[in-house]
Write a structure and sequence with these properties.
alpha/beta; 6 strands; 6-stranded parallel sheet; about 45% helix
Length: about 220
């Protein structure tokens, strides 16, 4: 029987999560008078749609200016134009039989399509199997993104596997009653024992640091 794999992009399909957070850290520190380090921004904002990140910031009493918002938008597209590689070994996972694929991400639609094109996977992830923050009322850690992806592809939650790296994404997978798999092969997380302990505390016990390990599991 076929199963559906729902992929996150940043930190999973490509090792980009740290790029966006480092850029946001620079902008927020300069424009909002913060003195955050990477651990702080990772704790508060990793793995969440930008709209959700703003909600978190507002809850902390931080209100980025219009100038800061414009700079973030411009620098996002600059990072995409500079390019990045897809995660080593992902092609072998995508080629496995008996699996369909979709993407559920907190990015916006236009930007995500450009990121998919940047890594050369536009033949796998198309507007027909892509769910972004534009299509749901609530982003991760709410389950809406993954539930809509499953509905679009005609799969029940029990037949879906979610590949995520962030706590917010894994929480969304659990809330959607799908099988959560943590991909911890990114620069941010491969040697981050604090993060891995937090993943395990969620009850997620399938943690892989390479696509080869993930492929081996999915073949079983």
């Amino acid at each position: 029987m076929e199963k559906l794999i729902i992929w996150d992009f940043d930190g999973v399909v490509a090792d980009t999560e740290k790029l966006w957070l480092e850029m946001e850290l620079d902008v927020f520190n300069r424009h909002c008078g913060l003195n955050w380090d990477f651990a702080i921004i990772n704790h508060y904002l990793a793995g969440q749609a930008f709209s959700r990140q703003l909600e978190v910031l507002h809850g902390l009493g931080i209100y980025p200016s219009d100038e800061a918002m414009l700079e973030i938008g411009a620098r996002c597209y600059q990072l995409i134009d500079e390019g990045f590689d897809r995660t080593e070994g992902i092609d072998d996972v995508l080629a496995l039989p008996n699996y369909k694929h979709a993407m559920g991400t907190g990015g916006d639609f236009k930007e995500t399509l450009l990121k998919i094109k940047a890594v050369g996977l536009e033949h796998i992830f198309t507007p027909d199997n892509l769910v972004t923050i534009d299509f749901v009322a609530r982003g991760k850690p709410a389950p809406d993104t993954f539930l809509l992806a499953a509905k679009m592809m005609g799969f029940a939650s029990k037949d879906c596997i979610v590949i995520e790296d962030s706590l917010a994404g894994l929480q969304a997978a659990i809330a959607a009653e799908m099988e959560p798999i943590c991909f911890a092969g990114s620069e941010m997380y491969r040697n981050n024992e604090t993060h891995l302990a937090a993943v395990k505390a969620l009850g997620v016990n399938k943690i892989f640091k390479s696509m080869a390990e993930l492929k081996e599991y999915l073949q079983q």
